[in-house]
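Weekly puzzle thread! Below is a chain. First person to post its structure in token form gets bragging rights.
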Amino acid sequence: MRLSIDTETDTYEQAIAAVQAAYGLRPVVPDDWPTASAVEPRLGPEALGGDDIVDGWTEQGLFRMVASLMPGARAVLRRIVDLGGTASYDDVQQYFADHPTAPIPPAKIGGTLTSVQAVQRRVGPADARKLLQRDERARLYGIDRSLVEGLTRAFALADARPDLLRR
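Winning reply:
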């Protein structure tokens, strides 16, 4: 059971009544109390699309992928998605080397991203191309353009429901 009391709007009496109700006691409710607003249901992965985007990837599958990644790999993947699906090695390395809250040394970006392939093997569709592709000669990271929009929605859900993400 989860009990939420908003200290900005709920009175002491309302808080006591909520605790009593949570324990099955009959609270005494004054007639002048405002009625509680309906609680909006929390969206989960089921709110995302289940239709095949490309190579067996669905929005729900992309969310499972994002949710299963280590936080550093998730941050790097998000940066590449935010850049439209293509980013140079140097841009990614510099962005995370100077990042104020989640710095990743330039030499560790590649190692951080190895978990993307490992997670894809575990939760991704069978026989799908690599979600995150690397062009060693051009020094670019790339994500299939058709997956960028689905990943954007997956990251939006991840922002709304961080409780669903691997820590």
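Puzzle host: Confirmed. Bonus trivia for everyone else. The first strand starts at residue 86 and ends at 88.
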